[in-house]
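Case study 2.
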Amino acid sequence: MSRNDELLRAAENIRQNAYAPYSSYKVGAAILADNGKVYCGCNVENAAYPEGVCAEASAISVMVADGGRQIMAIAIAGPKGEQVTPCGGCRQKIREFANAETSITTGDGRDFNLDDLLPVSFGPENLK
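Prediction:
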């Protein structure tokens, strides 16, 4: 089993814990960090819609809280093996901790790199 397949399986597993009573659209994310650890997160909806948390943002928060600082790869799983790519805000959050070549695997097994999903991006190096 490839690294991306393992991450996708972890994302599918954590997806079951998502809190999505309003949309019923559960999403899971799994990140391989620079420290070799895998961090998982799921979406958490809120009755005040803009206050929810995406799965990717949840996983990034767990990674940072544990001391991880770079995303080496990420997988995102949605319902029924559908292709689920990060929303615009999450693409930028991933960019904060990843480089243009970072692998992003979706629930249907497709692989992208961050530059495919967020071309000509703005990142930390732009502020130096």
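The first strand starts at residue 28 and ends at 33.
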